[in-house]
Specification:
CATH superfamily of the largest domain: ATPase, nucleotide binding domain
Number of domains: 3
CATH architecture of the largest domain: 2-Layer Sandwich
Number of strands: 18
Strand order of the largest sheet: 3-2-1-9-10
Largest sheet: 5 strands, mixed
Length: 345
C-alpha cells in the first residue's frame, strides 16, 4: 500500500549524462533541460559557483580564484564530488523539493557508455543516490539511442546504431531487445575532434586556441567528407612564437585534414563491429543500414563517408542530440517491471 502511495508522488527522471552536454527527460513532460556538462567551482575548494550554460561561458576566461571544469571524461565520472553537485543541480531544477520529497525521491534512468567497467557503473549510481535520487537504473547509451530514434529493437532482426557524443563513439548491433555486438571508442568523440583541430593549428600555424574556438570551427566548417559546402573561418588565438594575439583564415579542407584521425577511428569502430556480425544480422543491415545519433554525428559528410566505407545506407537521426534522452523516456514506462526484476534477482 505504501509503495503504491509513494509512486503517486515520485518523479521519474531520465538523464543523458554526457561528456559535453547533459539532457534531462521528465516523465509525461519530455526533455525539459539541455545544459553543457560544465561546473564552475571556487579554486582550492569544491564550492559550486555555476553549472551548465553559465559555467561554460567561463571556460578559458576565469580569474585565478574560479575554475571551470568538465567532471565527465570519455563518458565516465572524472570528479565524483563535482558530478554529484551537477546531478543535484539538474534534479532540483526540474523537480524542486516538495512536501513529499523525503518520502518519494525521484527514480532515475541514466545512460552510460557500453564499455564502462563495473566500478564506473557503481560510481554513477552512487553519485545519483548522493545527489538525491531514489532507485537508479542504468541503460547503455547505444541501446537508449536506438530506442530514442525509433529503431525496432525488440524484433528478431538486426538494427545498428552509431552514437557519437562528446567523449565516446558507441557502436552497437541490436536484436531481440539486446545488444549482440558493441564497440566503445573513447578517442573518437567530439572532444577528440576539438583536440585534433587545436593540435593542427598549433603544429601548422603556431597558433594556440581554446576548446570553445575549436568547437566553433568544427561546427562552422568541419567535415569528414567533401560535401560541396566548402567555407573559410577567421580564427583568433595567440601566436606561440611572438606571444601576441593573432588572426588567420583557415579553410574547410584544412579542418577536414585535421579531423582525419578521429574520423578514421569512427570508421574503424563501425567496421570492427560489422566484422563480428553474424551473416543473418549482416543481411538485415543491407536493407536497414545504420543510424547515426549523438551531437558529433552532425559533422558534415560523416554519413556519406561511412556509407562509402561500409556499402550500407546511413542516415542521421532527426534530432541526434536528443536520441539518448528520448530513449531513457521510453524506458521509464518499464521502470516498475525493471524494479520487480531487480528485487527478484
Amino acid at each position: 500500500m505504501f509503495g503504491k502511495l509513494k509512486s503517486l508522488f515520485s518523479t521519474d527522471i531520465g538523464i543523458d549524462l554526457g561528456t559535453a552536454n547533459s539532457l534531462v527527460y521528465v516523465k509525461d513532460r519530455g526533455i525539459v533541460l539541455r545544459e553543457p556538462s560544465v561546473v564552475a567551482i571556487q579554486a582550492g575548494s569544491k564550492r559550486v559557483l555555476a553549472v551548465g550554460e553559465e559555467a561554460k561561458r567561463m571556460l578559458g576566461r576565469t580569474p585565478g580564484n574560479i575554475v571551470a571544469i568538465r567532471p565527465m571524461k570519455s563518458g565516465v565520472i572524472a570528479d565524483f564530488d563535482i558530478t554529484e553537485a551537477m546531478i543535484k543541480y539538474f534534479i532540483e531544477k526540474v523537480c524542486p523539493p516538495h512536501f513529499y520529497s523525503k518520502y518519494s525521491k525521484p527514480r532515475m534512468v541514466i545512460a552510460v557508455p557500453s564499455g564502462i567497467t563495473e566500478v564506473e557503473k557503481r560510481a554513477v549510481e552512487d553519485a545519483a543516490h548522493v545527489a538525491g535520487a531514489g532507485e537508479v537504473f542504468l541503460i547503455e547509451e547505444p541501446m537508449a539511442a536506438a530506442i530514442g530514434v525509433g529503431l525496432p529493437v525488440s524484433e528478431p532482426a538486426g538494427s545498428m546504431v552509431v552514437d557519437i557524443g562528446g567523449g565516446t563513439c558507441e557502436v552497437a548491433i541490436i536484436s531481440l531487445a539486446g545488444i549482440v555486438h558493441s564497440y566503445s571508442q573513447r578517442q573518437a568523440g567530439g572532444d577528440a575532434m576539438d583536440d585534433a583541430i587545436m593540435s593542427y593549428l598549433k603544429r601548422v600555424y603556431n597558433l594556440l586556441i581554446g576548446e570553445r574556438t575549436a568547437e566553433d570551427i568544427k561546427i562552422k566548417i568541419g567535415s569528414a567528407y567533401p560535401t560541396g559546402e566548402e567555407g573559410t573561418f577567421e580564427v583568433r588565438g595567440r601566436d606561440i612564437v611572438a606571444g601576441l594575439p593573432k588572426t588567420l583564415t583557415i579553410t574547410s579542407e584544412e579542418i577536414r585534414d585535421a579531423l582525419k584521425d578521429p574520423v578514421a577511428l569512427i570508421v574503424d569502430a563501425v567496421r570492427a563491429t560489422l566484422d563480428r556480425c553474424e551473416p543473418e544480422l549482416a543481411a538485415d543491415l543491407v536493407d536497414r543500414g545504420l543510424v547515426l545519433s549523438g551531437g558529433s554525428s552532425q559533422l558534415r559528410g560523416l554519413d556519406k563517408l561511412l556509407s562509402d566505407q561500409t556499402g550500407l545506407p546511413v542516415t542521421v537521426a532527426d534530432d541526434p542530440l536528443s536520441a539518448v534522452a528520448e530513449g531513457t523516456g521510453v524506458v521509464m514506462n518499464e521502470l516498475d517491471f525493471l524494479a520487480r526484476n531487480r528485487r527478484a534477482s
